[in-house]
UniProtKB/TrEMBL annotation:
Gene Ontology BP, a term: NADH dehydrogenase complex (plastoquinone) assembly
Superkingdom as given in the UniProt entry: Eukaryota
InterPro entries linked to this entry: CRR42-like
Protein name: Chlororespiratory reduction 42
Length: 117
């Protein structure tokens, strides 16, 4: 864990009738080191091609087309819908192929579907 503290200082200096303005920002960084080993994080079961199930309906949905469209979810995506992950996007967003189309969904709205063989 690291955090920064910053404050600004501004100084003005007049030399031969010309005013010079100088500002600087001193920075202090604090780091916290753990001496004990942290347990390994479990790897996400989600990957491209994984089946998923919707656990909560999002309020708005965004299509995963080249020209995305953002619209209110009027019952298109419901809890219990099943789909498959098409691609991974930044910040825990996933392109998910559902029966009604491909949409960009946040990872909090679905979970990996456990398939028994």
């Amino acid at each position: 864990m690291a955090s920064s503290f910053a404050s600004s200082a501004r100084f003005s200096k007049t030399q031969s009738g010309v005013c010079y303005s100088v500002s600087f920002t001193p920075r202090v960084t604090v780091r916290c080191c753990e001496t004990a080993k942290e347990p390994p994080r479990p790897k996400s079961k989600l990957q491209v091609g994984s089946p998923i199930i919707i656990v909560e309906a999002p309020k708005v949905i965004k299509t995963a087309a080249s020209m995305p469209c953002l619209r209110a979810n009027s019952g298109l995506v419901k809890p219990g819908d099943v789909g498959r992950i098409v691609s991974r996007k930044p910040k825990d967003f996933w392109a998910v192929r559902l029966s009604i189309g491909t949409y960009l969904l946040d990872g909090k709205y679905f979970k990996a579907l456990e398939l028994e063989e």
